[in-house]
Structure formats: C-alpha cells, structure tokens
Amino acid sequence: MYVENYVFALRRTDYFIGTRNPSPFEHFWSLGVEEQFYLLWPVLIVVTARCASRRTGSAGPLPYLIVLGVVAALSFWLSLRWTHTVAPWAYFSLPTRAWELAAGGLVALLVPMLSRTAKPVAALAGWFGLVLITMACVQLDRGTLYPGTAALIPATGAALMIASGCAATRFSVTRILVLPPVRAVGRVSDSWYLWHWPVLVLAPVILGHPLGPAGTVITIAVPAGLAALTWWLVENPLRFADALRRSPARSLGCGAAIVVVAAGVAVSLTACARIPAPHGPSGAPLAFVTAAGTPGASDRPDEMLRSLEAQAEPVIAASDRVRVAPSNLTPPVGDQPTLLDNECLIPRRPERSPECVSGDPHADTRVALIGDSNATMWFSAFEPLAEQRHWQLETLTKAACPPMDLPIHSSDLEREYFECDRWRAWLLTHLREEHPHLVVVAMTRTYTAELDGVGSYSRTWNDSVNRLVSELRDTGAAVLLLGAIPTPPTDPQVCLSEHLDDVVTCTPARTVAVRADGIAAEQESVRAAGGSFADLTPLFCTRLRCPLVIGNSNVYLDDSHITPGYAQILAPVMSAFVDRALNGG
C-alpha cells in the first residue's frame, strides 16, 4: 500500500479520468504519500536538531521553519514543472506533494506567533480559508491541471482555517467547525475516505448499470454508514483498549498480527480464486512468409500484399469456425498489457511529445508514426521493421487526439480539447523541421459527434483527412494512412472471459464491426491528396464475420485497440504497405 502511488505513476494513471477497470483500492495512493513523508520527516528533524544544537547550543523553531520552508519551496517548484511535463508523477509522487504536508508543519511551528494574531484578522483568515475550500470543491474539475498552481487553493484554504483557530474568536469559522454534525463527520472522515472509493467502483457492478441520481446518493450514504460502523466497532475498541494503551510492545504486536492476518487472507483468496482458462486445442499463430523470407523492402508491393492477404485468409476463416478458445491463447484473457506503458503516448494535458526515437537513430531513412492511441497500438509492428530495415522511427502520439484539424471535445475533460489543437500545431511544425521520408498516420474511428464534437467518416472528418495528407505531403514526405481496425460492439475481453467455451458468441458480423462505406470515402480522400491508404479489414475478417481469436492470438485489447502481439504479427504486411507508399502507390 505504501508504494501504490508510484505504481499508478508508472502506469501513467489519470486520477480524474476513469479507466476501464479501476482498482477499488486506487485511493490508497494518498496513504502512500503520507507514510513516505512520515518516514523521511523524522530523519530531517533529527539532522536539523543536531546541526542546530552544534551551532547555537539550542534548537528553537527557526531551524525547523527554514528546513520546512526549503522542502516546501523545492517541492512546489517541482510540482509546477512536472504538472506540465509528467502529470501522473506530479499527482502521485512524494517529491511533488511534500509541500502540502510541509505547509501543515509550518502552521504547527508557527502556533505561538499565530495565537497573537489580531482576532479580526484571524477571523477573516478563517472565513477566507473556507471560501477557498468551497471554491476548490466547485471550480476544480477534470480539465484542471493538477496539482500545479491549482493545489494552492485547497491547501491554502486548509492552512488558513487551521491557523485561524489559534486565535479563535466568537465570529471565527470555528463556530461552524464545532457544531456536532461537523465534528461527527470529522470523527469518521478517515474511515469514510477508505470506504468511499470501493463503494463507488463496485456499486455499478453490483447494480448492473451506471450510477444515476439514486446511485449517487447510495455511494455517499453507504460509505458513511460503513465508516460509522468501522469507527464504532473496530477503531475505537482498538484505540482505547487498556491492554494496548498500557503496553507499546502489545500495540506493536497487535499491529503486526493484523498485518500478517490480512496478508494471509489476501494470499489465500488469490490462491483459491477460480480464474477461467481456455482449454481448446492449441492454435497455430498466424505467420507470414515473404518471398525473401524476411519483411524487407519489396519492389512489387501490390503483389506482396496480395500474397500476404491470401496467407491470412484461410487462417482467419478457420479461426471463425473455432468454438472453444485455444489453450495457448496469447495473451491470456485479462492479462493484456496497457498502451499507457508506451512512453511515446502522451496523456491529454501535455502539448508536446517527448523525443521518442527507436530503430537506428543515425539512419538516413526517417519514418514518423503519428496519431492517437491507435498509432501507439501499431508501434509493435513498426519497431521491428525500423530495426530490420535500418530506419529512424519517431513515434509522436497523443491520447484521444486525431492529428487532423478537428474541433474535438473531450468527454473526459468535459470541455474543448484545446491541448489537442496545440499538440497538432506543434506536430506539424516539428515534421516540417525534421523532413521525414515517410509519415504513417493512424487513429481510431470511434469518435462521435455526440461525445467528441465530430464523428469519424463524416464529411468534416474526411475533408480534414484530405487536408492533413496534403500538409504532410508538402513536407516532402510520403504518407501512409492506416485504415480502421474492426470495432466490436462490446468489450471483447469481457465477452471472451464469459464465453471461453463458445467464442463464436462474441464474434461480430462484418457489417457491424466494419464501416465499409466510411473506409471507402476515407480512402478516396487520402488518395486525392496524394497519400497511400491501407485497408486492414482483410487482416481481421472473413466475408461475413470478424473473429476475436485468430490462430492462437487474442486479437483485441479492447473495443478499439488490438493487442501488441497481433500488431507485431502483422509487421510483414505493414512493411508491404510502406513499400507501396514509398513507391507512390
């Protein structure tokens, strides 16, 4: 639990944007930050005390104020920088959050001085602190860059309210804080925090539908009741047990025993949990054979593409007839990697991509892979090609941001996605400066007018595709635009996990998963601007259906991405598409 915050930082979790399968213990990250601070702070106190006593013979509050002030200043400076560059690390890590804890320490050390504050000033400070906290509750949202400067609002508000209590008056905010209902909430606040997130995550699963107004009330009331029960039946009996209060050894022993028992229960539940596993006959992976035996350059790319599609056709057709998932299904259901592990994919808030070069960094042939998370999805196919064919491959991708000039609205940020606009502008400038030989463009086609402001394959979409290809061609690059992958109507992994003995149930019809008219219109827009278009449908579908398992490959990561393993299998096909684009086809 005490390192969970760094796990989420490494996964590049956005705490304000819901993930597909959030952990019911995700909120424990803050306990990790807190405990890490508590481990380091005593060391700083001891070192400061010894240094101060050697220099002055005493250890008044000034040395500690200086140390806390330096810690707070450095931490806040780092928070400002990281919020704009590596936002998950800014949100979850101790170095960027220590200033908030240090602020509390500064207030505690300044109590003697604060107690002498003029009472009207103290009262105003307390009420102003309450206003700031209220502002934080109603003004900060998913679109706020946080922590950054925004974290000053609740942190300053809390510090002012606490500080004002040192010189309490009849008209201070303390009059509200001492009311019985407020004190009752304060008593169970820690427990309420621990309970609220599991209920929020599990309630939709238990209810079988998203939370509505009634569900929202439940997610507030149920954790409050559980918190009160925990405080009454568990916390207080342990906190005030005479046997434990009289003996530090017994207290430590009891704590250790609780940890051991909890760990034992967790391990036992994990070991006893029945995880469904496929048990059908082993499947052979889809494997392509090129004329040269390797996915190298071809001077007859159209002929090569026809050969590769012909090799895929019988494997896909045979897979469509398989009922029981193969025992060697790869990757296993529920064990898919996440695209967020790829550092080339920047989240929603940054507006520039980091340097992300693979293959041969000194190669003469430069290839750029650009787009949203679908472009990142294809990295597993293009990275081995870059190494085999001695390319310099630069990957420039941004979450939920197609590279065309479209007015995208972010449903996650709940506002216009202006970071996407700024990233696109930076991207085109960067490509004009770098002059790549080839630009590969990929993006999901699941954008809708209702959620994103523009729909895939609409006239606006296709016109912007045409303009993008023209702009990229003006840089001197050949352009390859990868067509859409089939889009299953439901989450493939959820469906497979429930139908491992009847995977055909999960197989969508081609007419449902593939927008043939949209693909044709987009292809026309690309070719009209001088680009090359890759129709990927034959690599996933028969004439009638699009199986979720091909050979032994678990094809789909979710309903809009394929697994890195299947993308890598398709590397020879991508190589042929590249050759066609470079040859002007």
UniProtKB/TrEMBL annotation:
<feature type="transmembrane region" description="Helical">
    <location>
        <begin position="217"/>
        <end position="234"/>
    </location>
</feature>
<dbReference type="GO" id="GO:0016020">
    <property type="term" value="C:membrane"/>
</dbReference>
<feature type="transmembrane region" description="Helical">
    <location>
        <begin position="96"/>
        <end position="114"/>
    </location>
</feature>
<dbReference type="InterPro" id="IPR002656">
    <property type="entry name" value="Acyl_transf_3_dom"/>
</dbReference>
<feature type="domain" description="Acyltransferase 3">
    <location>
        <begin position="22"/>
        <end position="228"/>
    </location>
</feature>
<dbReference type="InterPro" id="IPR043968">
    <property type="entry name" value="SGNH"/>
</dbReference>
<feature type="transmembrane region" description="Helical">
    <location>
        <begin position="121"/>
        <end position="140"/>
    </location>
</feature>
<keyword id="KW-0812">Transmembrane</keyword>
<keyword id="KW-0808">Transferase</keyword>
<feature type="transmembrane region" description="Helical">
    <location>
        <begin position="255"/>
        <end position="277"/>
    </location>
</feature>
<dbReference type="Pfam" id="PF19040">
    <property type="entry name" value="SGNH"/>
</dbReference>
<feature type="transmembrane region" description="Helical">
    <location>
        <begin position="64"/>
        <end position="84"/>
    </location>
</feature>
<dbReference type="GO" id="GO:0016747">
    <property type="term" value="F:acyltransferase activity, transferring groups other than amino-acyl groups"/>
</dbReference>
<keyword id="KW-1133">Transmembrane helix</keyword>
<dbReference type="Pfam" id="PF01757">
    <property type="entry name" value="Acyl_transf_3"/>
</dbReference>
<protein>
    <submittedName>
        <fullName>Acyltransferase</fullName>
    </submittedName>
</protein>
<dbReference type="InterPro" id="IPR050879">
    <property type="entry name" value="Acyltransferase_3"/>
</dbReference>
<keyword id="KW-0472">Membrane</keyword>
<feature type="transmembrane region" description="Helical">
    <location>
        <begin position="192"/>
        <end position="211"/>
    </location>
</feature>
<feature type="transmembrane region" description="Helical">
    <location>
        <begin position="152"/>
        <end position="171"/>
    </location>
</feature>
<dbReference type="GO" id="GO:0009103">
    <property type="term" value="P:lipopolysaccharide biosynthetic process"/>
</dbReference>
<feature type="domain" description="SGNH">
    <location>
        <begin position="344"/>
        <end position="574"/>
    </location>
</feature>
<keyword id="KW-0012">Acyltransferase</keyword>
